[in-house]
């Protein structure tokens, strides 16, 4: 793994939080009435914001072999974070996007169910220490499902990093319940 300098990543967290505060687009009543959607697209489109966020997501990372980005913004972030850490990246895809054979996990959502997949051929994840990356931590179900999928292949999810955590939705507790309290969750910003 490439070297992570704590002072550099701590500074990046501060810069990323400022970029999030400055560039996040707020959209009322989306996707449904009463919801205030926080669109991070303008933050990621800003070169300084993106740079700060990518470095900030590596804060506290040690001994990572692979970054797994969750479909779809996790892909954008995961590749950049992997480059920063000098490790490989794996896309955790929504069901039906990969040709067989695949490893898959289906999990419950508040409005139904979803499936996540990774290739079953061409990679050996046995013993790989994985950082799971996504844009937002809400209820935590997707992160737990992705980690379960990776752990089933012999990998070990050793951390979760997100840009924004929606604290009131209990995602951190869901992750602790599903993966254990030893798996750290790093959120650049809390909402």
UniProtKB/TrEMBL annotation:
Subcellular localization(s) per the UniProt record: Cytoplasm
InterPro entries named in the record: Ade_phspho_trans, PRTase-like, PRTase_dom, UPRTase/APRTase
Main location: cytoplasm
Domain Phosphoribosyltransferase per the UniProt entry, residue ranges: 63-164
Annotated metabolic or biological route of this protein: Purine metabolism; AMP biosynthesis via salvage pathway; AMP from adenine: step 1/1
GO biological process, one term: AMP salvage
One Pfam family it belongs to: Pribosyltran
EC number: 2.4.2.7
Keyword Metal-binding: no
Gene Ontology molecular functions: adenine binding; adenine phosphoribosyltransferase activity; AMP binding
One annotated Gene Ontology cellular component of this protein: cytoplasm
Catalytic reactions of this protein: AMP + diphosphate = 5-phospho-alpha-D-ribose 1-diphosphate + adenine
Keywords (A to Z) from UniProt: Cytoplasm, Glycosyltransferase, Purine salvage, Transferase
Assembly and binders: Homodimer.
PANTHER family documented for this protein: ADENINE PHOSPHORIBOSYLTRANSFERASE
Function: Catalyzes a salvage reaction resulting in the formation of AMP, that is energically less costly than de novo synthesis.
Family under the similarity heading: Belongs to the purine/pyrimidine phosphoribosyltransferase family.
Record's protein name: Adenine phosphoribosyltransferase
Species in which this protein is naturally found: Gordonia alkanivorans CGMCC 6845
Lineage: Bacteria, Bacillati, Actinomycetota, Actinomycetes, Mycobacteriales
């Amino acid at each position: 793994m490439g070297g992570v300098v704590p002072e550099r990543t701590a500074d990046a967290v501060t810069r990323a939080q400022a970029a999030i505060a400055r560039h996040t687009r707020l959209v009322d009543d989306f996707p449904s009435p009463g919801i205030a959607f926080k669109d991070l697209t303008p933050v990621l489109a800003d070169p300084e914001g993106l740079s700060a966020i990518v470095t900030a997501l590596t804060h506290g990372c040690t001994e990572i072999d692979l970054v797994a980005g969750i479909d779809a913004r996790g892909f954008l972030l995961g590749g950049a974070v992997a480059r920063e850490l000098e490790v490989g990246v794996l896309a955790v895809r929504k069901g039906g996007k990969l040709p067989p054979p695949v490893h898959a996990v289906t999990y419950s959502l508040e409005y139904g169910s979803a499936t996540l997949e990774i290739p079953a051929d061409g990679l050996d994840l046995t013993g790989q220490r994985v950082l799971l990356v996504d844009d937002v931590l809400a209820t935590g179900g997707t992160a737990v499902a992705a980690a379960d999928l990776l752990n089933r292949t012999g990998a070990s999810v050793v951390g979760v990093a997100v840009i924004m955590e929606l604290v009131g939705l209990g995602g951190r507790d869901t992750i602790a319940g599903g993966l254990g309290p030893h798996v750290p969750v790093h959120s650049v910003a809390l909402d």
